């Protein structure tokens, strides 16, 4: 059984802790280091100025049922068990975080046309760029004593991403089987007759749209998010799946990484929890970014 964010907030309130409070970035020394794992789903912690939400160990069904609107052939359901919890960034990696924690230029300049500002998600970053950011984050956090030995910043696996996106839900999105314009930043038709409205037409800053039950924003829409895995036409199931075997091709012989979550320039059907697309790791785009996770070995 997985606890929801409502359970978390109720527990925090009962304990006299302010709702939405984060654990501080406590230095981790060689002795008397406090536990780095969370207690309840949705609990928050701040590391290097980035807010993370705890995703506990658990089991879930990955992929979409046969009757789901927009379902694609590569979404056949599999059972997944994640034996270790992880911390998922509450928002997509921002332009400000990219410069502050990594400092490398993006493949093309960020502009107002696609969304510009420190609080907006970074884009024009390849999978290779995103992994470089993760290494820089890990080095800085360890040097500051904010990340204990054995923990690292990485892109989430595809299983971790969908597990965090669903946050205990089994519907097409974390908000139900329909998606309204007020729920996420997307363009084109809403999902399953959801309410329409004006589209932003570019990326928007995080936390404009409501969070899922575990406190994660923009898991649906805004920018697509790179995952760690190589793309395969069949979803990885089983225990702690991690499709990170170098040189393993998908069925058409190309080499692609997985991207998830939909984007500001796609319709609501592309924002479903199970939707998965592939993209070559060297390429970048105006609507692909990423979010990071803190994981243990």
What does this structure look like?
- By secondary structure, this protein is of the alpha+beta class.
- It has one domain (36-297): paralog of FGE (formylglycine-generating enzyme) (Alpha-Beta Complex), CATH 3.90.1580.10.
- Helix content is 14%, strand content 17%.
- It has 4 helices and 13 strands.
- The strands form 3 sheets. A 6-stranded mixed sheet has the order 1-2-3-6-13-7.
- A hairpin with a 2-residue loop joins strand 2 and strand 3.
- The longest helix is centred in the middle third of the chain and has 17 residues, at 127-143.
- It is globular.
- The model is unreliable at 1-21 and 24-33 (pLDDT under 50).
Query: Looking at CATH, which topology would you report?
Result: paralog of FGE (formylglycine-generating enzyme)
* CATH class division: Alpha Beta
Q: Encode the helix/strand succession as letters.
A: HEEEEEEHHEHEEEEEE
Task: Estimate the strand proportion.
Answer: 15-25%
Low-confidence stretches: 1-21, 24-33
Q: Helicity range of the residues? A: 10-25%
Task: Please work out how many helical segments DSSP would assign.
Answer: 4
Largest sheet: 6 strands, mixed
Broad structural category: alpha+beta
